[in-house]
Amino acid sequence: MYAKNELLFPSYVIPLLRSLRGEEWRRLVDRVVSLPETHPERLAFSLMMIKLDGCMECETDSYRAMRGCAMCATQTLRRFKGSDGELLKAYREALVEIETYLAERSPAAKVA
């Protein structure tokens, strides 16, 4: 009845999004898929997609949840009216959020 559902955007969907936008987007996807799942850049990509897709408001019994995360992300990127540059800006903003979060929680930050 239900597709494979996650609570938030899953990292395994990233490579499936490669061909949905232009060259800048493809380069970004190629870069982040080459990194470990816990790398800040890959986490930033997931955070960006969580925000774009509206994962925080997704309900498990909703139509888009039943279709699955890959279909939701694909549809979101196809419907996105902004440029690849705007997507890359959103990615960079997400990366700053991730890096700030990690810096605030690092053992070195607690010593200071």
Number of strands: 0
Encode the helix/strand succession as letters.
Answer: HHHHHH
Please give the largest β-sheet. Answer: none
The figure for the number of domains is: 1
Strand content: under 5%
The 3D shape can be described as globular
Rg (C-alpha, Å): 15 Å
Distance between the termini: 52 Å
Return the average pLDDT rounded to an integer.
87
Strand and helix layout:
Blueprint: H1 23-33, H2 40-53, H3 63-67, H4 69-79, H5 84-105, H6 107-111
Helix pairs in contact: 1-5, 2-5
Describe the protein's architecture and organization.
The protein is an all-alpha fold. The chain has one domain (11-111). 61% of the residues lie in helices and 0% in strands. The protein has 6 helices and no strands. It has helices spanning 23-33, 40-53, 63-67, 69-79, 84-105, 107-111. Helix 2 (40-53) crosses helix 5. It starts with 22 loop residues before the first helix and ends with a helix. The relative contact order is 0.18. The mean pLDDT is 87.
Characteristic terms for this protein:
globular; 112 residues; 0% strand; 61% helix; mainly alpha
Provide a short characterization of the protein structure.
The chain is built from six helices and no strands.
